[in-house]
Design brief:
The chain contains 6 helices and 14 strands. The protein is α+β, with helices and mostly antiparallel strands. It has a 7-stranded antiparallel β-sheet, with helices on one face. Bound molecules: flavin mononucleotide. Flavin mononucleotide binds next to strand 3, strand 5 and helix 3. The site of flavin mononucleotide has 18 residues, from strand 3, strand 5 and helix 3.
Length: 209
């Protein structure tokens, strides 16, 4: 048995609460931008994913018009810093709706480091950052999907394994769940993809044979 939720019957805000409780866990893009006037801005966005492999494009969604979106429109640049577990309270603090003249870096006491290819700073304490140049802003409903081409990825060297692969147990990313719930990395399981030619007789009804 299931309970159905009709978006039209439930209404916008309530359905949003349901939607963000079932589209889980969501990675958090900690988006830094600079306004045309030179104020650094930092805000978490959990409607975040990879949009294209080649060229490498990531996207995040601004629910309505916000400082991050305005700054990207003005300057065409942004940086996504991975939001790590040890900065839990700091990430949350940057979700506060400050006025445009306030830098969340300063308000929340978050250390910056310079980026290499764009003007917005990186979060110094973040283990992995993606520097991005605006590709496109696409309006969808009451939101704006921001696509950015990645101009540089920079990962803390001590978080890489011997093959230069980022180690999930070192990155320790936060994720966003429903309501005020957040996630941390739990058990990590590994499995290889089944090649099509090995499929017959390999897997059925949840059982590998
Ligand atoms: C973990 C987390 C995830 C969030 N995800 C989003 C999101 O995906 N889109 C959005 O518009 N706002 C999101 N918010 C709210 C924004 O961070 C908040 O509105 C912030 O004040 C926007 O800052 P800005 O006006 O400086 O851009 C999120 C907040 C938190 C704490």
């Amino acid at each position: 048995m299931r309970t159905d939720f009709d978006p039209a019957a439930l209404g916008g805000r309530s359905f949003y609460r349901l939607l963000t409780s079932v589209v889980v866990p969501r990675p958090i893009a900690w988006v830094s931008t600079v306004s045309a006037g030179g104020v650094d801005n930092l805000a978490p966005h959990s409607f975040f994913t990879v949009a294209s492999v080649n060229p490498p494009v990531v996207s995040f969604t601004s629910v309505g018009e916000k400082d991050s979106l305005r700054n990207i429109r003005e300057t065409g640049e942004f940086v996504i810093s991975l939001a790590p577990e040890n900065l839990f309270e700091a990430v949350n603090a940057t979700g506060t709706g400050f006025t445009p003249g306030v830098s969340e870096f300063d308000a929340a006491g978050i250390a910056r480091e310079p980026s290499a290819t764009v003007r917005p700073p990186r979060v110094a304490g973040s283990p992995a950052v993606l520097e991005c140049r605006l590709h496109e802003i696409h309006p969808v409903g009451d939101c704006f999907v921001v696509y950015g081409e990645v101009t540089l990825a920079a990962v803390q060297t001590d978080m890489l394994d011997s093959d230069s692969h980022p180690r999930i147990d070192k990155l320790r990313p936060l994720s966003r769940l429903g309501l005020n719930e957040w996630g941390t990395i739990g058990e990590v399981r590994e499995i290889t993809r089944i090649p099509a030619e090995e499929w017959p007789g390999h897997y059925r009804g949840g059982q590998v044979r």
